[in-house]
């Protein structure tokens, strides 16, 4: 019995020593994440080094309004776009990249001339749109429409438009896929006849089944 009592006392001492040493290790470790969590809530989600400088992670900075690390940085600038993430810009044309291209001037890459009349002046481009010819004048550049029908290879009729042209075909014909040549239009697809329809170049002819004759209107069957 005395031996058993000594063993019990020794085991109790070991358990007590284990618990006291375990408590000494566990509690301080739990306090640090708790205080760090409070720091993260205070300065925002992108926090890397609380207590040193702003504490924001690389690529982020404190937002002036809230004082939190929520404002992304774009090292190369975004021009007319906006910085949506570290070194990622959303550009006006919907594209994303590390930066946005500078928009061209109002007169394009060739610069401007001044066009002056009646005491007023305005900037005009030194280039003309497609379908227009450019002529230098004392007041700058003058753009005049080109009559493409002089050189256009339309099978039917050519109609000049501002900056371009359009081909048209006569009755019973329609434009092909190349928008220049003409092909016969199958009028029978519109089912103009009561019974039978026979397509022909530029026209069609109706006929009737046996036992009927064609009405005077050339479409109905009696």
UniProtKB/TrEMBL annotation:
Coiled coil: none annotated. GO terms for cellular component: cytoplasm; extracellular region. One of its GO terms (biological process) is cellular response to virus. It is found in: Secreted. Residues 184-218 form the EGF-like domain. Keywords: Disulfide bond, EGF-like domain, Glycoprotein, Repeat, Secreted, Signal. SMART domains: EGF (SM00181), EGF_CA (SM00179). Its main location: secreted. Pfam families: EGF_CA (PF07645). CDD domains: EGF_CA. GO terms for molecular function: calcium ion binding. PANTHER family: VON WILLEBRAND FACTOR C AND EGF DOMAIN-CONTAINING PROTEIN. This is VWCE protein. It comes from Edolisoma coerulescens.
């Amino acid at each position: 019995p005395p031996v058993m009592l000594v063993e019990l006392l020794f085991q109790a001492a070991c358990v007590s020593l284990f618990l006291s040493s375990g408590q000494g290790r566990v509690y301080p470790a739990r306090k640090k994440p708790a205080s760090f969590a409070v720091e993260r809530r205070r300065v925002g989600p992108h926090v890397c080094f609380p207590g040193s400088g702003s504490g924001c992670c690389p690529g982020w900075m404190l937002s002036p309004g809230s004082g939190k690390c929520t404002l992304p940085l774009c090292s190369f600038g975004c021009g007319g776009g906006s910085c949506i993430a570290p070194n990622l810009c959303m550009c006006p044309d919907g594209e994303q990249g590390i930066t946005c291209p500078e928009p061209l001037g109002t007169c394009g890459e060739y610069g401007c001339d001044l066009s002056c009349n009646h005491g007023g002046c305005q900037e005009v481009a030194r280039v003309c749109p497609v379908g227009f010819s450019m002529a230098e004048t004392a007041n700058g550049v003058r753009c005049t429409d080109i009559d493409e029908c002089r050189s256009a290879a339309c099978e039917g009729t050519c109609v000049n438009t501002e900056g371009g042209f359009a081909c048209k075909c006569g009755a019973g014909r329609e434009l092909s896929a190349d928008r220049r040549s003409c092909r016969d239009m199958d009028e029978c697809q519109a089912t103009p006849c009561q019974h039978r329809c026979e397509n022909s170049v530029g026209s069609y002819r109706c006929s009737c089944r046996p036992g009927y004759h064609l009405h005077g209107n050339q479409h109905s069957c009696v």
